[in-house]
Amino acid sequence: MIVRKLAEILNTWRHASGEGWESRRIVLADDKMGYSMHDTLVKEGAELHLEYKNHLEANYCIEGIGEVENVATGERHPIQPGTLYALDNHDKHILRAIKGDLRLICAFSPALSGRETHDADGSYNAAES
Question: Which reactions does this protein catalyse (predicted)?
């Protein structure tokens, strides 16, 4: 059984950040669950251009107001607490935090190692996972 508290992850190597975001990486590849789970903050006003070419991702919003845009179609979908969006086709997307910080519970498959960094196109390298 794995039991972790967010307070134990903050300010450790499992707490990654970049311009406009923080990822608190709770379950990772070395936990051997087959997926990874993250508590992610996207700072108000941030606009993240992302495309996970090597991973599928599901995101469940628990705080804040934002939107996700499908770059291929231009469709924009509002995000608020209680909204889930899943990138089931490795969708190139833009995530915007509009009012307050967005707080998302995110799951990645395959699992991330926790030491990845975003490539220039917003993806993670498959070899790092």
Answer: (2S)-4-acetamido-2-aminobutanoate = L-ectoine + H2O
- Note whether residue 121 is domain-resident: no
Domain that holds residue 29: 14-107
Rounded to whole angstroms, the Cα distance separating 50 from 94 reads 6
**21-50: burial string, b at 16+ Cβ within 10 Å, e else:** bbbbbbbbbeeeeebbbbbbbbbbebebeb
34-72 pLDDT, tens digit each: 999 999 999 999 999 999 888 899 999 999 999 999 999
Reduced to 3 states (helix: H, G, I; strand: E, B; else coil), residue 116 is coil
| Total H helices, total E strands in the chain | 1, 8
Asked whether residue 67 is assigned to any structural domain, the reply reads: yes
The count of other CB atoms within 10 Å of the CB of residue 98 is 16
* The total number of structural domains that make up the chain: 1
pLDDT for position 128 = 47
Give the domain CATH number at 62: 2.60.120.10
The answer to whether position 95 is within a domain reads yes
pLDDT digits (tens, 9 = 90+) for 92-109: 999 999 999 999 999 999
